[in-house]
Amino acid sequence: MGDIRDRGSLGSPLIAEEGLKGGADGGGHAGDLRTRICDESKKLWHIVGPEVLCRISSSTMNLVTQAFAGHLGDVELASFYIANNVIVGFNYGLLLGMASALETLCGQAFGARRYHMLGIYMQRSWIVLVLFSLLLLPVYMYATTILKFLGQADNVAEMAGHICLWLIPLHFSFAFLFPLQRFLQTQLKTAPVAYVSLTGLAMHSVLSWVLVYRLKLGVVGLAIGLNVSWWCLVFGCFAYVAFGGCPSSWTGFSTEAFSSLWEFLTLSAASGLMLCLENWYYRILILMSGSMSNAAVAVDALSICLTANAWEMMIALAFFAGTGVRVANELGAGRGDAAKFATQVSVTTSAIIGLFFAVLIMITREKFAWIFTSSQDVIEAVDQMSYLLSFTILLNSVQPILSGVAVGCGWQARVAYVNLGCYYAVGLPLGVILGWVFDLGVKGIWGGMIFGGTAVQTVILAVITGRSDWDKEAMKAKNHVRRWTIEPPADDEAQLI
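Structure tokens predicted for Protein DETOXIFICATION (497 residues):
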């Protein structure tokens, strides 16, 4: 136990220690409720804080790249935006979702103190994600044809397709980085991930300037900059893991990573589908809005609202990761009541933050659009949509956390069906009816998809979570860990006890 608590964590080692303690009350404490809430919040924010920094860093990398592309020209800006947000974004979401399977497996194994399995799980994830990355390569190779089919102008589609070919190394970096990040997060070793991400952002800014302005490489230089920066994140995280940061959970490469790949692939695919169905849902919202006649102002206003929502979602998605880890850790340790309490604290904390931003939007609804535009028509349209934006922010402060609970419990396949039904059987049709049949335009599409899709999904996930037998879930998690565990050699096992 000394290895995993005392060595390798650049964060607070006490939090890792507290996360492994049990207690009769399920929360690890016999004290009052306030003490339990404070302790649980400390563990939660130990994951959420660095995760927010990581998400901000990766988003800022894209903003830096787009800023340099904008100074190269309008076609370059549009091409890089399309390549990075449509082609790369599609693959990014799928691989990120697939890597979240490690939040279930590594999180539960860590709670059960089967530390040696974490490294094996990560290697299995690398294998599965690399295979899927190979299968997704045609999306990059035929990006020009795909973009022309989607209605992009020929010059933009051709340049974007050329950029996509240069971004293939970036694509493969996702297959290694995402599992590394989840591997570290599930052990509560979150500070190294944050440090590496912030260092990568600083390096990316300087590298982009050199490649564009000094070496005059244009959009190809921007693509090279993204490739180098993201692979430096991979090597930075792996260097921490391999050179003493995780002595109990990383014991080197193992052929055991090639066993049980089908079961691992099934869970990874369910995880990827669960998150992608939601990610694609919002992209469809933009495409549907853009296809409406005379909707230019409304679509501009919608893009501003969704940008504001995306920044707040970084916090919500950080809570998604934190909740998944906390629930998986407690279930793996056999503490169902502690997992339930972690869920309650996470949902309440995120909801309070969401309420704050929702109220802030309503207070500044006539002003915050000035950050993005000076068009009075767009500003007025944003003002009219501010009610939908506030409700969306409030709803999205709860829904991702419930999805995080699902990941911690291993319910990905079940939630994928829920997402499919809510978003595509309820939300999309309702959005079409309100937008076109009732002639409510973009507001109707957005309102229908939010109230019909996201709201229904949130209610269903809340019911599933509320009716869960947490002791039974803890038993299932322990059985799951036992079934997937490969016993270490006797010498290694002695070190883990």
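The mean pLDDT is 86.
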